[in-house]
Write a structure and sequence with these properties.
heterodimer; A: MetI-like fold; 2 domains; B: 2 domains; 10 helices; ABC-type phosphonate transporter activity (chain A); MetI-like_sf (chain A); transmembrane (chain A); transport (chain A); membrane (chain A)
Chain lengths: 265, 278
């Protein structure tokens, strides 16, 4: 090895020009978007104090007079999350089995299911909500349905990935001793799948609690409706109380789901 | 004597090019303890998996207990499979299920789904499961989860599961390749004792020649998908062994070299494509 090489050892084999090109491309994208949308950071910064002022002047002090009236809406919101997670976990489990190569050897069926699930997942739930409001009118059923559709999409894919991760070795033993498909499913796949099943389902529940609040804003019932109405009526003090209560509910949900996780997974 | 298992001109080609088995013809007779040896990638795993159709052969006949295995499918295949017990290199237990349930999995093919879900196995099966576990020294681990056991213990559970099928034929694919020498010894010994007691025909893949010589009634050597030796252990001379492991000498012995061949086992390059699902 000659001396020059010893003194100049590159740490990467990669071409440094490539990285440079990437940086330039991403930066140009940012600049172009800002210019096209006429967004100025200066305006944002200048506007910040007045936003903060508006927030503190109008939203404070929180009004706690009607606290008791919010309770039904809170329960309603949690109810939506519970029901939609419940129903979707059952349907998503079936889809998950149909999508995973470990449990479904029929390729066409896998592709069709995956496509269907991907449509469910890729339409945001707020759009499902808006669509379903046209069909069913304002009310709880819309919220639950929208949540179910998106959660099925999300959970089916996650379940399928977890089922894929179960090593084929374990199922091979059951295959070798003459067990039927459903026996392999129930005695080989499901026991190994339980931890991820609990994990994903709790995660979906957390998402659904948050989402069910947003759904209210498109008129799909629950606590979102209260927040929306109060802001529209300039009752900011009440709105901030509802938001605070809602945040507490979300934190409590996370606390509960985390302790369930620790215990069972 | 009528053979229990007859293999005729068995060929397996993976993809288009990889010929794992190149036309193997063998007869296996009741009561034999056959050890198949050969370097990794020789086709041992493919061969043993073709017998119970975990691998579908490309060509050839497999006649087990009067049935053409290669022609069976669905319920009939499952029924024949239930007569063949199998032990795996990686034990293949269901880790989150407890030991006795894993052993009882050996009887799944004999009871309907709802009964297995409710745990309604026959009393004799449960009794035998416990007896088998006692025999291999695991009576204190019966209700432990399978993934809490050590490798040697897991393999002993694997043996119990296979025996509970009350099989006519026992297949073992590298049963001790993932174990330390001490556990390997125990597992081999118990496998041998139990199969003798139950008068089982046993086909064991190994790549340790010394174990093969110790336990086998007949040794078969496979190299590049072909049978290159078939005879009594006493006929297996050192020069034959050397020839077969040419260039792969490190795989021959277990003692003091278990680390080396363990590492080599894990190198997928030496295996035919898809051979071990690894």
């Amino acid at each position: 090895m000659n001396k020059q090489l010893i003194h100049n050892i590159p740490l990467n084999q990669r071409d440094s020009k490539k990285i440079f090109v990437f940086v330039v491309v991403f930066f140009t994208l940012l600049i172009l978007s800002l210019v096209y949308l006429k967004i100025s950071f200066i305006e944002m910064l200048v506007g910040l104090p007045s936003f903060v002022m508006f927030f503190f002047e109008n939203f404070f002090p929180p009004s706690v007079e009607n606290l008791q009236q919010y309770i039904p809406a809170m329960v309603e919101t949690l109810g939506y999350a519970v029901i939609s997670t419940y129903i979707s976990t059952i349907i998503a489990f079936i889809f998950g089995i149909l999508i995973s190569e470990n449990t479904n050897k029929i390729k066409s069926l896998r592709v069709i299911t995956r496509g269907f699930v991907s449509i469910l997942r890729n339409i945001p739930f707020i759009i499902w909500g808006a669509l379903l409001v046209y069909i069913f009118g304002i009310g709880g059923i819309v919220g639950v349905l929208a949540l179910i559709l998106v959660t099925i999409g999300f959970l089916s894919k996650s379940y399928a990935e977890s089922i894929d991760e179960i090593s084929g070795d374990k199922l091979e033993a059951l295959r070798a001793n003459g067990s039927s498909y459903f026996q392999i499913l129930f005695h080989g796949v499901i026991p190994q799948f339980v931890p991820s099943w609990i994990n994903w389902t709790l995660f979906a529940f957390e998402i659904n609690v948050r989402a069910s609040a947003v759904l209210g804003i498109v008129g799909a019932g629950g606590i979102g409706v209260l927040i929306d109405t109060n802001i529209n009526l300039f009752k900011y003090g009440e709105a901030i109380t509802i938001i605070a209560v809602f945040v507490i509910i979300i934190l409590l949900t996370e606390f509960v789901t985390n302790s369930i996780r620790k215990r069972f997974v | 004597m009528k053979p229990l298992l007859s293999i005729k001109n068995l060929v397996k080609v993976y993809g288009k090019e990889t010929r794992a088995l190149n036309g193997i013809t063998l007869d296996f007779f009741p009561g034999e303890f056959i050890v198949i040896i050969g370097p990794s990638g020789a086709g041992k795993s493919t061969f043993i998996r073709s017998i119970n159709r975990l691998v579908d052969p490309t060509k050839g006949e497999i006649i087990f207990d009067g049935q053409h295995m290669e022609k069976l499918s669905g319920r009939k295949l499952r029924k024949e499979r239930s007569k063949i017990g199998m032990i795996f290199q990686h034990y293949n237990l269901v880790g989150r299920t407890n030991v006795i349930k894993n052993v009882l999995h050996g009887q799944l093919s004999n009871i309907p789904l709802y009964k297995s879900l409710l745990g309604l196995y026959h009393h004799e099966d449960k009794k035998e499961a416990v007896e088998l576990l006692k025999k291999v020294g695991l009576e204190d681990q019966i209700y432990k989860r399978a993934d809490e056991l050590s490798g040697g213990q897991m393999q002993r559970v694997g043996i119990c599961r296979a025996i509970l099928q009350r099989p006519k034929l026992l297949l073992a694919d590298e049963p001790i390749a993932s174990l330390d020498p001490l556990s390997a010894n125990i597992v081999m010994q118990q496998l041998h004792t139990i199969s003798q007691e139950k008068k089982l025909t046993c086909i064991v893949n190994l790549h340790q020649v010394d174990y093969a010589k110790k336990y086998a009634t007949r040794i078969i050597e496979i190299k590049k998908g072909l049978v290159v030796f078939d005879g009594a252990p006493s006929q297996l001379t050192d020069s034959i062994i050397k020839d077969i492991y040419e260039g792969k000498e490190s795989q021959m012995k277990l003692k003091g070299e278990s680390e080396t061949h363990f590492v080599e086992k894990r190198q997928p390059k030496q295996l035919a494509v898809g051979q071990n699902n690894e």
